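How a chain folds remains the central question behind the approach discussed here. For one protein, we set the task of working out the structure tokens from the amino acid sequence alone. The sequence in question and its structure tokens are set out directly beneath this paragraph.

_____
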Amino acid sequence: MTARLAAFVSVSLAALSPMPLYAAEAADPVVVTLDQAKVLRIAAPAATVIIGNPSIADATMQDSQTLVITGRAYGVTNVIVLDDAGEPIADTQIMVQAPTINVVTVQKGASRYSMSCMERCQPTLIPGDDTEFYSTIQSQNAVHNGTAGGN
């Protein structure tokens, strides 16, 4: 393995590893991409998890010390984790950002169109896109998902 490839693999694996939340006040915000999830480890078993604005981010307990945060809408909110006694274990900001990897944005006048580009570009749902474009893609996805589910 070349040194360059080894460095890439090392950085990639570090980016995939769960992020620990050890202090009651985390200094750096947790950045989550819209429609993606991030695993957070908690220093002690949690009894209660509070999301400031559940329309921005959602939290699911995987086990007593593992949270899965999912980005639901752009913005900033916070997550507070309490133990059995109601004492804070963690309190940190959650920032939900737009996807940036393999996404191309086309601006045509006042209208914006987003494409997910891997081997070829396909329309994708990104809030803020042209209303008609977004509705058409959303409708097509609903039909596709219904067909895949046997509906």
